[in-house]
């Protein structure tokens, strides 16, 4: 079925090379079947035809980041933002990348603020802003963002972990432990679970 879908999308591109949909659909097939580099190439082909398509640069950035190609991901997110200045997903992803992989908190905060200005109620963006502020030691400002994020996305364990770290920074240890327990007991897997367990043990 995957082979048939590939053929169908390639045929559609030949019939109408200006249609965006078949390029994106084929790229998604490549991603789902473990061919990330081919997906990137597919988006590059699309960009040759539609050079102002910010979403294609966003897709490339996401794939490159997942592959651990952080410089390439940063470049792709920047290209998306050059086309669309208020493209919140690209700004948020770039802020997260700069925070977690590049340790450039000042630059990360600029992009996180841009993302928040564009979509101020998006919990993932509030989390990014709050986490950067936590890492900078601005715990009270961090707390307001993280508490709003968790109100909007209550079952997200990463946000609860970030909230716990901010609470620890404010020496609100009981509240931090409560958030850590909620994060650890969630049914969702999350990358920081071992960090959460270590922090809970440290505070107990």
Short description:
This protein is mainly alpha-helical.
Q: What is the approximate shape?
A: elongated
Reported CATH architecture of one domain: Alpha Horseshoe
- Mind telling me the CATH class of one domain? Mainly Alpha
CATH superfamily of one domain: Tetratricopeptide repeat domain
Average pLDDT reading = 94
Q: Give the N-terminus to C-terminus distance in angstroms.
A: 53 Å
Largest sheet: none
CATH fold-type name of one domain = Serine Threonine Protein Phosphatase 5, Tetratricopeptide repeat
Write down how many β-strands occur, each being a DSSP E stretch of 2 or more residues.
0
- Strand-residue proportion: under 5%
Order of helices and strands: HHHHHHHHHHHH
Query: Total helix count?
Result: 12
Structural class, from helix and strand content?
A: mainly alpha
Contiguous uncertain segments of 5+ residues? none
**Radius of gyration over all CA atoms, rounded:** 20 Å
Helical proportion?
Answer: over 70%
């Amino acid at each position: 079925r995957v082979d048939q879908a590939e053929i169908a999308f390639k045929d559609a591109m030949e019939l109408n090379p200006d249609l965006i949909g078949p390029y994106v659909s084929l790229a998604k097939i490549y991603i789902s079947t473990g061919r990330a580099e081919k997906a990137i190439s597919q988006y590059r082909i699309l960009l040759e035809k539609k050079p102002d398509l910010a979403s294609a640069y966003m897709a490339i950035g996401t794939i490159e980041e997942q592959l651990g190609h952080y410089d390439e991901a940063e470049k792709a997110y920047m290209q998306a933002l050059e086309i669309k200045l208020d493209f919140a997903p690209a700004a948020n992803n770039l802020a997260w990348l700069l925070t977690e992989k590049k340790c450039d908190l000042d630059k990360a905060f600029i992009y996180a603020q841009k993302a928040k200005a564009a979509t101020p109620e998006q919990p993932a963006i509030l989390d990014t802003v709050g986490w950067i502020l936590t890492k900078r030691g601005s715990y009270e400002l961090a707390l307001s963002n993280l508490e709003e994020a968790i109100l909007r996305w209550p079952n997200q364990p990463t946000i609860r972990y970030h909230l716990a770290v901010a609470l620890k920074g404010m020496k609100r240890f009981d509240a931090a432990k409560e958030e850590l327990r909620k994060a650890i007991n969630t049914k969702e897997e999350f990358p920081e679970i071992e960090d959460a367990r270590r922090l809970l043990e440290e505070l107990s």
